[in-house]
């Protein structure tokens, strides 16, 4: 069960419900922590391909909360943020969406997260 071992070491939080989304969003907002949710689907290959990239970013930017939201499991959240294609990445600060990237583009998501981190005054580990 190699994947379970990897999941236990993951810095990416998998959102299981609307309640857990709201809880993490509230907690991160109260702490002034930027948030980067990855809206994904298990059947979407571009989303699956971005998972290791997202994990690497979560290890690099430890003061950012990285969330994974499966659109089939947590439809209410995907609908609220008008997610219509996967993968979709939101960049959030102070609980509000400040940017959105649709598609599997590792270089672009890195660049946008770097910009988010700089705008929030968060430092890279």
UniProtKB/TrEMBL annotation:
What organism is recorded for this protein?
Actinidia chinensis var. chinensis
Which Pfam families does this UniProt record tie to the protein? Answer: Thioredoxin
Residue ranges of every copy of the Thioredoxin domain listed in the record: 1-118
This protein's superkingdom?
A: Eukaryota
**Which InterPro entries does the record match to this protein?**
Thioredoxin-like_sf (IPR036249), Thioredoxin_domain (IPR013766), Thioredoxin_H-type-like (IPR050620)
| Name of the protein described by the UniProt record | Thioredoxin-like protein
Q: Give yes or no: UniProt keyword Lipid metabolism.
A: no
The protein's UniProt keywords, in alphabetical order, are: Disulfide bond, Electron transport, Redox-active center, Transport
| Bilayer-spanning residue ranges | none
């Amino acid at each position: 069960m190699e994947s379970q071992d990897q999941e236990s070491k993951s810095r990416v939080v998998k959102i299981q419900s609307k309640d857990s989304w709201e809880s993490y969003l509230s907690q991160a907002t109260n702490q002034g922590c930027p948030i980067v949710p990855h809206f994904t689907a298990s059947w979407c290959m571009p989303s699956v391909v971005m998972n290791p990239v997202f994990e690497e970013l979560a290890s690099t930017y430890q003061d950012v909360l990285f969330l994974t939201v499966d659109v089939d499991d947590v439809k209410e959240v995907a609908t609220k943020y008008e997610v219509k294609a996967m993968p979709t990445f939101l960049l959030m600060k102070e609980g509000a969406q400040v940017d959105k990237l649709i598609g599997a583009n590792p270089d672009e998501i890195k660049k946008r997260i770097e910009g988010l981190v700089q705008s929030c005054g968060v430092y890279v580990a």
